[in-house]
Known about the structure:
It is built from 18 helices and three strands. By secondary structure, it is mainly alpha-helical. Strands 2-1-3 form a three-stranded mixed sheet, sandwiched between helices. The radius of gyration is 30 Å and the shape is elongated. The two termini are 26 Å apart. 35% of the residues are buried. Keywords: Membrane, Transmembrane, Transmembrane helix. InterPro entries: DUF3526 (IPR021913).
Amino acid sequence: xxxFWILFAAEWRHFKAAKGxxxxxxxxxxxGLYGIYYGTSEINRQRQHLAELPALARHNxxxxxxxxxxxxxxxxxxxYHTTFAVHHPTPWASLSLGQRxxxxxxxxxxxxxxxxxLYASENVNPTKALSGNxxxxxxxxxxxxxxxxxxxxxxxxxxxxxxxxxxxxxxxVSAATLVGAKLAFRLALVLGLVLVLSVxxxxxxxxxxxxxxxxxLALALVYCLFWFGVxxxxxxxQRNSAFNAVALVGVWLVLVVLVPGLLNVFVSAxxxxxxxxxxxxxxREEIHGGWDxxxxxxxxxxxxxxPQFRDTATIKERFxxxxxxxxxxxxxxxxxxxxxxYTNGLRQRYDLVNRLSWLSPAVAAQTxxxxxxxxxxxxxxxxxxxxxxxxxxxxxxxYPYLFHKVAFTHADFAKEPxxxxxxxxxxxxxxxxxGKLLISAGVVFGAGLLLFRARPVNPR
Length: 460
């Protein structure tokens, strides 16, 4: 054991003398801190935006009170009044933005057809959308493996190429002790860096100190252990440093870039889903066609869904708001099968990716971190479902005014339902991902150990 710690200390001195490695490690630390800053700033920006929405809704109400100083037709209020379905992030979202940088975190709603509003999104800079956002999870999943490769590609080959491995093994030092000390130092360095960045991110984001802290750290540490296992496996082949570097970078490209890309193509082909644009277009076609259909036909179809309003007066006017909102709702109903297929298809894609994530530890780690942060696809689908239920509540609020011809007063604005939705973490998904990472790390370390024992170290 004393020999092990002597070698461990020697590795520390060697690391300090290697200016390039010190610079690289410092750079990764700075990039990690920037990822923390960016993720926290992005979530704070979203929170600030969400906090401003109630003021916008109140301003809209004030304008309507001026526009309609007395009693008003609820149909006109429903047409001009804007409210919001909002998706609040968890504190953990600062560490792993997940879907929150590609999907809307609020939806502007009126009493009109839902689907055209639900899938409407603001224009974004396409260059920014292509490059994606930056957070701590990105640094851990994509950049830390490169740091581990830089630290470990010449784990044993450098001594052999410098001609000092024979001298080292001539001492009372076994090859296993030498490799173990080298790996242990690099492991301590990287895991210490992971711990520092994670703690800084958690304090900065003010995450609650619960069991998710341990789960996040376990995911990050085991993921790094997997890459150390890959480095140990490549080292056990006892090839030169150039071969080791190329092999490790090749493994990184396959597991972090190629497999996730192929997985995305496969999942898209295996689980096709209707496009949200298709939903919107079909709904609009149905709504626009409603103008030309007989009012009796439209209202009978609507009364089949809302029989409580069947006893309302027959429509004789050329235009009346209850007829207008009736065919708006029927437009939503016409695309209901597509809506269900779209939502179920996305969920099935997500489940299929989860089942196949053992093919790429990077996918398993990213999916798990997003689930822990409540920023994954299921969280977004849950928000869309919540927004749909809110729109249903709005219709349930306005329909009695419309069909019973009740005047809408200023006091009625305060009775209108409001919406809020906050993501929840999915520790079960994260724990499942942790299990996959543990198995992957165990497999590569086991394979490396078997190869290391099968091929005695040749000092030349």
